[in-house]
Amino acid sequence: MSAIQIGQQIAFLRKQERLTQEELAQALGVTNQAVSKWESGACCPDITLLPQIAAYFKVSVDELLGYRPADSLNDVSLKIKNLFQNTPAEECFDLAYKLAFVLHEGAVTRGYKGYVPWDTSKERLTDEALYQWGYSACSEPEGVTVMKRSTVVIASEKHHTPMSSGDVQEVLNALQRLGSWQTLRVLYGLYELTFRDYSVYMTPEEIGSACDLPVDAVQRALDWLPVQIKTEDGRARYRLDNTCMHIPTILSLLTR
């Protein structure tokens, strides 16, 4: 194993225990600089130190050297958090989607197929591979997971709570508000016009042009939709309310 791999494993175990490099150095009787060099991959710990380091973290020497994969949810969670911490902010949602894809595929294959047919020798999370499935859904007593285009939804039924009459009425009210072709057309049109920039607001004329609808039909639809309104130059401009930007994506899962 390379110095970099050993260093990464030591850094992972240290962070899991919420220790600073200085605290680890004191516990092992070495200098802060030594721990820093291990974790940066500049050098490896002396071989005689490996049993002491492994004993300190309550792992085997094989685990310390990374020969055994992380086998607990806490281990995986910490690695994922570290991954996000080291990922540029603008790439975090793409990373989250790729992780959700892996979770969906794992749930589906272990659900109704009974195995996970992953070829670990290939790079699977390329953009091309992510869209090969197209539409995929798995409904089991334990939960439901659906993947369509760039959306993955996973619901666990472990703590399922039945819908109350009030909950059902709220769903009905929401569907009735969106229950015309023109309203849905404006919903998706306004979403497409504004989702990339939360500072953008559109006039009814601009929305109508994008949706190929007359302005009066757009205005009627806007009266039913959850929108934010901004007045500029004496004119009302619209965008979907930021708390409801997920609605077009969720509705798209209703179809195959």
Annotation keywords:
three-stranded antiparallel β-sheet; 3 domains; 434 Repressor (Amino-terminal Domain); Arc Repressor Mutant, subunit A; two-stranded antiparallel ribbon; 256 residues; 13 helices; mainly alpha
Number of helices: 13
Radius of gyration: 26 Å
Return the string of H and E elements: HHHHHHHHEEEHHHHEEH
Q: Give the termini separation.
A: 47 Å
Q: So what's the overall shape?
A: elongated
- CATH fold annotation of the largest domain: Arc Repressor Mutant, subunit A
What level of helicity do the residues show? 40-55%
- Total count of domains: 3
The total strand number stands at: 5
Beta percentage is 5-15%
Query: Tell me, what is the CATH class of the largest domain?
Result: Mainly Alpha
What structural class do you assign from the helix and strand content?
mainly alpha
CATH architecture of the largest domain: Orthogonal Bundle
Mean pLDDT: 87
Can you walk through the features of this model?
With 256 residues, the protein is mostly helical. The protein has three domains: 3-76, lambda repressor-like DNA-binding domains (434 Repressor (Amino-terminal Domain), Orthogonal Bundle); 87-156, no CATH class; 165-252, Arc Repressor Mutant, subunit A, CATH 1.10.10.10. The protein has 13 helices and five strands. α10 crosses α11 (204-211). The longest helix is centred in the middle third of the chain and has 22 residues, at 92-113. The two termini are 47 Å apart. The mean pLDDT is 87.
Task: Please specify the SSE layout and strand pairing.
Blueprint (H helix, E strand, L loop, with lengths): L2 H14 L4 H8 L3 H9 L9 H8 L3 H4 L8 H13 L6 H22 L13 H4 L4 E6 L2 E6 L2 E6 L8 H13 L3 H14 L9 H8 L3 H10 L2 E6 L2 E6 L6 H6 L4
Antiparallel strand pairs: 1-2, 2-3, 4-5
Helix pairs in contact: 1-3, 2-3, 10-11, 10-12, 11-12
